[in-house]
Design goal:
The chain is an alpha+beta fold. Helix content is about 25%, strand content about 20%. It folds into 2 domains: about 110 residues, Rieske [2Fe-2S] iron-sulphur domain (Rieske Iron-sulfur Protein, 3-layer Sandwich), CATH 2.102.10; about 300 residues, no CATH class. Bound molecules: FE2/S2 (inorganic) cluster (FES) and fe (ii) ion (FE2).
Length: about 475
């Protein structure tokens, strides 16, 4: 439980707020690169600030204040020129640094333009996303992310705009036991209502509930643990009656809000980052950044651009879409309310990691208040190596067990996520289970999965 003041401090991201000041030490995704191909001048909102993002005709990006300093015309209607964005009202031209380059209706010898500026922020592109930095100078480096630099694979970006505060999204990252009910029982109930529930033992919702029944029968319960590292933390879950050093390790977190759900499982074709980007206090842009990396012998068409799709949270009838894993996570976030009232909550042992994340957030806010750099602010190019998850801090036996699990998956026989291309007993493809079903290149991914299957089988036969 938090006090009202603590809840405010940890959630609000506007300028001048404690968490807003922390967030302004980081780079944030503000758009997908392809969105600028469709429309080179866009209104964007980040950390409670309205801005205008543009790409001029020379390919330069700019992120500037929304209103023209002349007489407040909104710059989302601006015209991109060879250099900069032109206000459509009287033609003042601004570049990405905020300088006014032209005031074409003023006398040619006027120097007034040199005394006019518009607010401007740094932007960079990485992995099909445009990232912005709104904080104090000097501007830190944009941290390199392993999946954004992946080759021999496909990248896909799926976005959802959620009507809730970013911290609700982030708290879910530490909450592993939720999968039992949210991706088990709710999943079953949703499919039951659709008339699609089957007894398919391979399906995640059935397997999860079966495990839980088994736990209850033994009188066991899930235990959670957190291990901090340089970038954030990893968390583990194990059954209370299981061996003490064997934990199922969950997705590593890169502070402040990126999680890598199957990070560390090097055998998987499918990887993803999930980012809960604070648009403002009550809106979060959730990005599911997916990569599919196939065995080297499989021919993967080169991607000219990384596609992006924005998926609604409701269907055409206005009903929330709950029949896939991320859809279930998302309802748990926004159904807590816009900013959940943490003075009313009742935490238990299973919330240990949620509490630990709040503590970490508070500590980082305090570092900024004391004038320091919080974690993951990188300034030395030598340190900016692509982030890959670390299991650092866990006992060696735990790491060994987790690696063994990853090797099992590499054979592709135990995890339904290796079987997206296959049809379940209910007659639908496993790709329907999660947000992968919205991938713009879904058909291609399914075909490549089939080919991967064929190659893996041939390899197995050759070994036998
Ligand atoms: S309002 Fe922009 S140039 Fe006049
Ligand atoms: Fe979940």
């Amino acid at each position: 439980m938090l006090t009202r003041e603590e809840n405010e401090m940890l959630t609000r991201v506007g300028p001048g707020t404690p968490c807003g000041e922390l967030m302004r030490r980081y780079w944030h995704p503000i758009a997908a690169t392809v969105q600028l191909e469709d429309k080179p001048v866009r209104k964007v909102r980040i950390l409670g600030e309205d801005l205008v993002l543009f790409r001029d005709r020379s390919g330069n990006l700019g992120l500037i204040g929304p209103r023209c300093p002349h007489r407040a015309m909104h710059m989302e209607f601006g015209v991109p020129e060879v250099a900069g964005l032109r206000c459509p009202y009287h033609g003042w031209l601004f570049d990405g640094t905020g300088r006014c380059l032209e005031q074409p209706l003023a006398p040619p010898d006027s120097t007034y333009k040199d005394r006019v500026r518009t607010p401007a922020y740094d932007v960079q592109e990485m992995g099909g996303l445009v990232w912005a930095y709104l904080g104090p100078k000097p501007v830190p480096l944009l941290p390199r992310m392993g999946l954004c630099e992946q080759d021999h694979g496909l990248q896909q970006i799926i976005g959802h705009v959620l009507p809730c505060n970013w911290l609700q999204v982030m708290e879910n990252r530490g909450d592993q036991p939720h999968a039992i009910f949210l991706h088990g029982r709710l999943f079953q109930y949703t499919l039951e209502r659709q008339g699609r529930l089957t007894d398919d033992s391979f399906a995640r919702y059935n397997a999860t509930m079966r495990q839980q029944q088994e736990r209850l029968r033994r009188g066991a319960y899930p235990m959670v643990e957190i291990v901090y590292n340089k970038y954030g933390f990893t968390k583990g879950m194990r059954d209370s009656d299981g061996p003490e050093d064997v934990w199922q390790l969950g997705g590593p977190v890169f502070f402040p809000y990126l999680v890598y759900p199957n990070g560390g499982n090097s055998g998987s074709i499918r990887h993803d980052y999930q980012l809960g980007v604070p648009i403002d206090d009550t809106t979060t842009w959730h990005i599911s950044y997916r990569t599919y990396t196939f065995p080297p012998d499989i021919e993967v068409p080169a991607q000219r651009r990384i596609p992006y799709v924005e998926v609604p949270i409701k269907d055409d009838r206005g009903e929330y879409i709950l029949d896939y894993v991320l859809g279930q996570d998302m309802v748990a976030w926004y159904a807590q309310g816009e900013i959940t009232d943490r003075t009313q909550e009742h935490l238990y042992d299973g919330d240990k990691v949620v509490i630990a994340y709040r503590k970490m957030l508070k500590e980082q806010i305090e570092i900024v208040q004391r004038g320091g750099d919080p974690m993951n602010v990188i300034r030395d190019p030598k340190e900016n190596v692509p982030w890959t998850p670390t299991l650092e801090g866990w006992p060696p036996a735990t790491i060994e067990a987790a690696t063994r699990y990853s090797r099992t998956l590499r054979r592709g026989t135990t995890d339904y996520r290796f079987n997206f291309h296959k049809v379940s007993q209910g007659g639908w493809q496993y790709i329907e289970d999660d947000v992968d079903r919205y991938c713009p290149d879904r058909e291609l991914i399914l075909r490549l999965y089939e080919e991967a299957d064929r190659v893996l089988q041939q390899q197995a036969q050759a070994r036998a």
